[in-house]
Amino acid sequence: MNEFLNQVFFGNSLRDYLWAAVIILFVLLLNRFISKYIAILLYKLLHRRWKTLDKQSFIDLVISPLGSFLIITVCIITLSQLNFPPQFDVKLYKYKLSEVLLSIAIIIQLVAFIWLLMRIIDFIAMVLEIAANQTTTQSDNQLIVFFRDFLKVVLAILGVMMVLHFAFGFNVTTLFTGLSIVGAAIALALRESLENLIASFVIFFDKPFTTGDFVKVQNIAGNVERIGLRSTRIRTTDKSYVTVPNKQMVDSILDNVSLRSQMRGEVNLFLHLQTPQQKIADLQFAVSKYLSGIREVETHNEILNEIRFQSFVLLIEFFTPNLPQTQFTQLKHDLNFFILKTMEEMEIRVAG
To answer: Of 50, 90, 158, 259, which residue is the least packed, with the fewest Cβ within 10 Å?
Structure first.
């Protein structure tokens, strides 16, 4: 039996092939169990810091990338103990096939590792977002989303550096030195992107608006749905999804309608010059009585604002608390219909 197992094929004994196959098969069969056990250990470490962590959610999130990383790592370690068959170790360009395959394996392993770390970042962000949802302000939520995306970008850059160093043998220190030399050129090429990135930090720390606010910037008005590293997404009143660079959100004059202490509505009525004075007074009284009966209206004024050579101008203005835009629009709509109905009943004509 020993003689049979000691037979050499392609530079390795049959015993070595058998051991490698057993180890890899063992990990494949028990991968789910081992990954779950490691995930539980990771959960216990994180649970010491965040007591509100949900165990099952964490395990479901990390078990897949953790299992992939485990299988890839075990396969690389196991197969590296075998001698690569010299007859297959041909040169591809100037690299041996064994070196190419090892580099590919390392790349796959690093990708799986970065994937695992990103899943952990997602879970921590999810836990923090649940806690942030219990507060009244939305600034915590957008800050969590921002730093989640920012950490993912940093992690991706570190992953590329690790691939260059471990898979291709590049000296990362030399690479950083080279990047510093061309840093000015890169900064100029990416000037707009860097300006948007800096503007995103200004938005998060200065807080001119938060997710959910209704804003007006340039010729765009709508609710802020997401604030990213480069741009802000706004859902306009006609339900379009507009992407605005963060630099424009910071540099432009921005009206945060959601932060108004009151909302003002007005109606200018241009009445015919032949309208009797008493009818104008009756119209003022009817509108005043109507607005007084609306719970949302805090104050209102009805004044004969101007006497022009073509018309009398009756100004009707009212102030409400900071209502949702749709509710405020409906209030103005109902007021306009009441005015039309009252003018029709009083036989009051508009000018022109």
So the answer is: 90
**Contact residues for 44 (Cβ-Cβ < 8 A; gap 6+):** none
Per-residue pLDDT tens for 32-47?
777 888 877 877 776 7
Please give the mean pLDDT across all residues of the chain: 79
Chain centre distance of CA 6:
59
* Confidence band for 171, pLDDT divided at 50, 70 and 90: confident
Q: What is the mean pLDDT of residues 207-236?
A: 86
Q: Which of 300, 305, 303, 278 is nearest to 289 (CA)?
A: 300
Q: How confident is the model at residue 199 (pLDDT cuts 50, 70, 90)?
A: confident
CA–CA separation, 100 vs 41, rounded Å?
35
Reported as a single tens digit per residue, the pLDDT across 62-109 is 777 777 878 888 777 777 776 666 666 566 677 676 677 777 778 887
Residue labelled with tokens 């370690």: 77
d(CA 35, CA 40): 9
Alpha helix positions (H), the chain: 2-5, 14-47, 55-80, 97-132, 139-162, 172-181, 183-189, 191-206, 246-251, 277-292, 325-346
* Angle between the N-to-C axes of helices 139-162 and 97-132, in degrees from 0 to 180, rounded to the nearest 10: 170
Q: How far apart are CA 222 and CA 241, in angstroms?
A: 9
Going by C-alpha positions, the residue among 161, 164, 155 that lies closest to residue 115 is 155
207-216 pLDDT, tens per residue?
A: 888 888 888 8
Q: Residues near 72 by Cβ (< 8 Å), separated by ≥ 6?
A: 105, 108, 109, 112
- Residue 328 neighbours by CB under 8 Å, 6+ apart: 263, 265, 320
CA proximity to 350, closest of 277, 252, 275: 275
Amino acid present at 285: F
Is residue 66 a contact partner of residue 35, using CB atoms and an 8 Å limit?
Answer: yes
**Which backbone phi and psi does 202 adopt, to 5 degrees?**
-60, -40
